[in-house]
Amino acid sequence: MPLHSLPALFMRGGTSNGLVFDSRDLPADRADWDAIFLAAMGSPDPDGRQLDGMGGGVSSLSKVCVLAPPSRADADIDYTFAQVSVREASVDYAGNCGNMASAMGPAALVLGLLRAEGAQARVRIHNTNTARIVAATFPLEDGLLAGAGDLEIDGVAGTAAPIRLDFLDPGGAKTGKLLPTGRARDRLDLPDGAEIEASLVDAANPCVFVAASALGKTGTEHPDDLQADAAFLARIEAIRQAGSVRMGLTADLPAAARMASLPKVAMVAPPAEARLLSGRVLPAEAMHLHVRMMSMGQAHRAVPITGALCLGLACRLPGSIPADCARPDEAALTLAHPSGSVLVDAQTAPEPGGARAISGAVYRTARLLFAGRVFHAAPPAAPPTP
Description:
By secondary structure, the protein is α+β, with helices and mostly antiparallel strands. Helix content is 17%, strand content 35%. It has a 19-stranded mixed sheet that branches. Strands 14-15 form a two-stranded antiparallel ribbon. The longest helix has 18 residues.
């Protein structure tokens, strides 16, 4: 069978990489997308390396984004995110990716979906996975993202032009409520009969937060050490699945196991000195709290942006586990992760029966790495029905 090809961009967005397609180049029937995305990324790969595709062997480097003309009046473009499993033949559309969202405004300009003039662009991105708007603001050169800048983000070498992402009204992205259970803390029953306290928060993407101390951890562990701890991985996955059911994302534990991308699950800890992946030591006074987040069963080497936004908003909810772990501050919050830290500006407001997430903002960078055609061996899609 000959190889097939499609026009595509390959972009870095924040601390992630992914393929970006124009929806008009993909089959009209979305049922045909999965085979293409899996083949293009090199999945499934039992060795976990994706050497026969564009993926990088970890969840943050195994992503696909699809751009389209806007389907709602308050947006400039539609953005659909697909998380491609590394080892399994699975493509998950349940959640958003904030890191790749930073690349969507610049990608839309390259693909010709938008035009921009002047020194700065502001692009309103409709994330179809969560039905929420993300506003991206970034500098321009000749109608495209500026090729250079002075913003450095932890986990990415060098500097680039700053991209501000404003997640507007991000609460209840999947469940309809910032606090799906109406409480800042819940007790989750685990399959082995144990109980654990957790904060279940839904903003940008739903997340389950637990105290690192409740898992016998410090919250400063190296991701490789967490990945090598089979008992920890089993316990954190059990917590994720129990949280999924309690939040109403899935009906039961088997369904939660099948939806591996959501909710995200993380352990948090108070500020403490920590050694980063680079070997640099981050002092306790340079952060508001530690986070170690899991993504698709893997210990994340930084923190997903949607997870950081959800965590920042959770820190504004009195009585939540993140709020009790964090050093109090009314200004933006610095969240420490294995590669460094990320600054999150999170705003909430009280309302009857809980709180409302007003907005969350972060700064990212992005870069176009390649533009051309991606080749794959997926079966050809059926022709559209006349």
